Amino acid sequence: MMRGAFLFLSRQPALRRWMEAWPPSHKVTRRFVAGDTLEEALAVCARLQGERVFSTLDHLGENVRTIEEAAASCDAYVSALEQIAARGLSSTIAIKLTQFGLDLSAQACLENVRRLEAKAKTAGSRVEIDMESSAYTERTLALAIQAGSECGCVRVCVQAYLHRSAGDIERLNVAAVPVRLVKGAYREPPSVAFPRKQDVDANYVALMKNLLDHGVYPAIATHDEKLIQEAIEYVQGRGIRQDSFEFQMLYGIRRDLQRRLIEQGYRLRLYIPYGTDWYPYFMRRLAERPANLWFVLKNLLK
Ligand SMILES: Cc1cc2nc3c(=O)[nH]c(=O)nc-3n(C[C@H](O)[C@H](O)[C@H](O)COP(=O)(O)OP(=O)(O)OC[C@H]3O[C@@H](n4cnc5c(N)ncnc54)[C@H](O)[C@@H]3O)c2cc1C
Questions:
Q1: pTM confidence score
Q2: Which end of the chain has a smaller Cβ tally under 10 Å, C or N?
Q3: 3 lines ligand 1 (CB under 6 A)
Q4: How far does residue 285's CA lie from ligand 1's centre (Å)?
Q5: How many domains are there within the chain?
């Protein structure tokens, strides 16, 4: 109920404009968003690298309205990749295809992604393609498979809550495209996604095992302690090497668990969002855990 309310609010443009312009909002977004600028986000990546944690940079923004806006998003990521290379960071970039014009022109979007791939390749980095709502799933996968076959430096996200995901994982394994496995963060109807948490979790475990056995350098992206423990027991039981996959988590969430994985020698990459366009991302984090609302109110009153 609360989850649905936050996801509904995340799509209200008037509230979004008001929140993004509201000066005290910084006080509450800082837990989940690294900063307004690339420089602030890079400082976080450098600090994390000192703690043996990898990162992926997300320049916040989605659903651009013009080809020019899409090109500007692409420019922002080109700058990020140049700085990743210049500073010797083990960072990748995380992009949303609607930020690159997927709603406007599939071809223009592909050209933008190609531009980033070329930069990522020379920087020794990777382009991680986020998965948005189910309206974009097929187009996102098709583009990821095409882009992945051209450069070999693409990873794409798959959501365990979608009924279709087992088939998608098979396709991606055959195409040798690395996958980031998540539960899924959007509001979807039962015809498309499992409505019950236990079914999503069961599907997550099945897909995770498939990826660990047959995938290319998969990313197990979750803060769910039970699922992480299942992954650890599975890799230990089958002798799967610690450097053949990575865990991923979001910046600011379950820092205790993050530290524990690093101490146990596992690879961990944190998703680092930055920029002024933080509203939909922030609302999805509240939707996942309505208890975060208390954290928000507490910080506003400080
Ligand atoms: C690296 C990364 C990339 C992602 N990329 C995408 C993407 O491209 N597309 C997409 O749809 N989704 C994406 N997600 C979000 C994902 O789909 C889930 O919504 C999110 O990870 C919460 O699910 P969970 O697996 O942590 O499990 P849950 O069952 O939701 O949570 C397990 C535990 O984690 C902690 N937790 C989870 N969320 C929060 C929170 N917001 N605040 C505080 N604690 C929390 C709580 O302790 C909770 O009990 C991504 C997640 C990660 C980690």
A1: 0.93
A2: N
A3: no
A4: 8
A5: 1
